[in-house]
Amino acid sequence: xxxxxxxxxxxxxxxxxxxxxxxxxxxxxxxxxEENDLPLTASYTELQQKLDELHWADIADLLESLPLDDRLLxxxxxxxxxxxxxxxxxxxxxxxxxxxxxxxxxxxxxAKDMDADELADLxxxxxxxxxxxxxxxxxxxxxxRLQSALSYEEDQVGGLMDFEILSIRDDVSLETVLRYLRRxxxxxxxxxxxxxxxxxxxxKGVLPIKxxxxxxxxxxxxxxxxxxxxxxxxxxxxxGAAQAFERYDLISAPVVDNNGKLVGRxxxxxxxxxxxEETETEMLNxxxxxxxxxxxxxxxxxxxxxxxxxxxxxxxxxxxSRVIGLFDGTIEKLVALAALMPIVAxxxxxxxxxxxxxxxxxxxxxxxxxxxxxxxxxxxIGVSFINGIIWGSVIGIVAYYLYGSxxxxxxxxxxMTLNLLLAACMGVLIPMTMVKCGRDPALGSSxxxxxxxxxxxxxxxxxxxxxxxxFGIMPVTG
Amino acid sequence: xxxxxxxxxxxxxxxxxxxxxxxxxxxxxxxxxEENDLPLTASYTELQQKLDELHWADIADLLESLPLDDRLLxxxxxxxxxxxxxxxxxxxxxxxxxxxxxxxxxxxxxAKDMDADELADLxxxxxxxxxxxxxxxxxxxxxxRLQSALSYEEDQVGGLMDFEILSIRDDVSLETVLRYLRRxxxxxxxxxxxxxxxxxxxxKGVLPIKxxxxxxxxxxxxxxxxxxxxxxxxxxxxxGAAQAFERYDLISAPVVDNNGKLVGRxxxxxxxxxxxEETETEMLNxxxxxxxxxxxxxxxxxxxxxxxxxxxxxxxxxxxSRVIGLFDGTIEKLVALAALMPIVAxxxxxxxxxxxxxxxxxxxxxxxxxxxxxxxxxxxIGVSFINGIIWGSVIGIVAYYLYGSxxxxxxxxxxMTLNLLLAACMGVLIPMTMVKCGRDPALGSSxxxxxxxxxxxxxxxxxxxxxxxxFGIMPVTG
Lengths: 478, 478
Description:
2 copies of one chain form a homodimer.
Chain A: H1 12-36, H2 42-53, H3 56-64, H4 68-77, H5 83-89, H6 92-100, H7 104-111, H8 116-122, H9 128-136, H10 140-150, H11 157-160, E1 167-168, H12 174-182, E2 193-197, E3 203-208, H13 209-214, H14 221-224, H15 238-247, E4 252-256, E5 262-267, H16 268-286, H17 299-326, H18 328-333, H19 336-364, H20 373-403, H21 406-436, H22 445-470
Parallel strand pairs in A: 1-2
Antiparallel strand pairs in A: 2-3, 4-5
């Protein structure tokens, strides 16, 4: 029973801290011991013991929060029979560092008890030799399942389903089902319903465990089963399935092929991971990070994860710079413009990021259809207009006091309002356009909107100043 | 059985689209009918019928994606017996608009069948009159539970737990438990375990339903129960509990007070909502939005949701502007500086946002302790240094070609590298400091880091240029 392994959650952080202290102590002792040719002592044993007391899911968490050298030390100390569970629990980036530290023999030992769907999760990071050897140790059914799982993408239902199916016929009594279940040693995790199939494995319905417990044992399965359950197909989008799990409060659900044949099962634990990862990825993508990063990844890896968007940003910043370059002459005439222009650009960027974050989030939740684009746009323009007038006036008055020029204040206020309107339009239209082009609206959206409001803000502000100066409305210093 | 109400998920978007088309049609017909004194026709009936076919959780979703007038029309058409479920499912912002459209009588009718924990969710948005009336209709136990639920914050376990407890003693046989369960009409949702208590309601363990099914009915509960389950306390942080649910793959878990007395129950559905909301709030907070916004909120509401951070941004932008103002004379001498300075600030902001997003995320997952601050700082500094040298050189060379001044190129490269280093330090230190001060590290972190890299970037770049010009290394145009 897994429950008995678990300790109360409150002391977890304390225990992590203790382990970190032990790690420091051990590292010191190790150095000392090596220098003086002494055997390793107390801290090693204590470390081992503390680790043995931890649930494997906690070890996975601990490994993620340790720098590489400590991480590998802990990994060596963890009992090998828990390797497999831990490998499946850690993030992709951390898993890679752990696998790199294992030889083929150890990897095969860790993976040999995995189910087909678990092996499929691990497969992309295994060498061909290891994968072949693992394949050959599987029976025909398991091998077929592995191949099926590998044939789907990670973001498809088929890539996330498992094969631990408990199924029954609909013409037996609940009593028979109860007797049948007692013959098992263990159930698949998250079994809240049993699948009801016919002799061709076509899904006829589901029998919720609670119906099995609530009803008279003499009733037939067909009399109490739900014959219209939520079902999924292997080629469906996994995130859509996760949203359905959340919406309908599901714990497990059947996956059927186009003929209605039961081929697998989805469970809430995979869906929770997916919901967290999806929102997380969205956040990272908006900030211009390519993927989830192991926080202790090597410097070089981190550089690669980040530089694509930095390069894009460099190009957009360069364009903004050229926009300013257009107005060299204007700035020379009134150098105060150089000091004020970043305010216009900055507020625009901030406001645009607020809008785009909200829109991207609402899109992920399917709250936005193209039908209501114009209403949204209208609302955002209204919000920007009010903010522009209010904050534009504030900063316009400040500019007037600082530089003693009412016309400069007016340029400030107008530019700010116009740039906020630009930010609102772009904040709505960028993600909408990206979705129409079949792209992820979160991807680099923050970098893109900032690019627009920078170049746009400089152009609007300096352009207005140029006009005011040309028409002699604004006095110049030069 | 809830399962029979649910339709396959794939057609949901289609059905939403159909309903939106019907809404447009109905709005047109209504106008026409009113003008010509005709009765309402087909589209109304069809709309009603389509809505009746939808699961209440889908209606909640639909309501969130409709503008206010359509939303209230749909709300009127929804059968009143589903009002309560829908109200509990929609987001806080949307719920407010729905409640505003109901009179006290309707609200009381919708809320009268709610459990104490559900009422507690609704309570903050109800008028005192309504709340009093609902309170008086409750029995003593329910009223005590409601008061208990209201005494905890939304982010505490006590604010999220429900009271649907199924409990048994440990000295009875599984057969007795099975017979006892059959006397119920319905189980609490998400019942994957039954709580085992003594006569003082002290929790002794849990009996997983699967143990009930797998084992010989003659065995005693005490023989098969798990006596060391994961437990929670009402005053614990709810997000920590959600992480424990995810880590240990829990479906339900007991909540006990300091004496070990069973007082409530947590279930995975609430935890999934919380995980999604928490990540979402983090994302919105980083962008400087105060709270989740109804995307069709009134303009005025949206303005209020956003302007606090805009005001902060205005102040920081003003500071950056004053930093530039310090170097008025330098810019006058070499106006190219005005065009180049936003590049340095912009790239710094982008890079800083990458770092801070990663750190904030890792903090939410408890992967970062103060113990590893310095290692992280070291890594981030390394990444920035490499990016600074590479991209700084690129832009330095571009600046050299554009303005024909190698010293300007050198200033560009150095300033970029230094600003990226600043961004790295601030990206690590800002969230660490906020946590040390007991604040949410996500809150406005993006605005803060941008402020640092803007002011810092301008100061570094213009300061270096000033030095180069003062020492006669850089030629001036003015």
